[in-house]
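Human
Can I borrow your eye for a moment on a structure tokenisation matter? Give me a protein, with the fold worked out from its sequence. Write it directly below this note and I will take it from there.

Assistant
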Amino acid sequence: MIVLLAQYQAQPGKGDEVLALLEKMAVAVRDHEPGCRTYEVSRGREDGDAFLLYEVYVDETAVSDHRATPHFKRYVLDSIIPLLASRTVSFYNVMI
């Protein structure tokens, strides 16, 4: 299992737009990606422009498949990233 943590910092005041797109992305992932076990979106309590995505994939292929989906291109690459001030993505292996 592979955990992907993504931290998004939206441009000031763009948090609501990013959240709306992430909601659509979450539905698409849950409906069309059997290799994704968890796709959770959290929003900053004090900073509404900050987001943390917690994703769990069964293997490397599932991660690659996720990044190749039309919904990843539409929502993340084409729509969300242009609204961000910063984005970091980290990968972890589940050990226990």
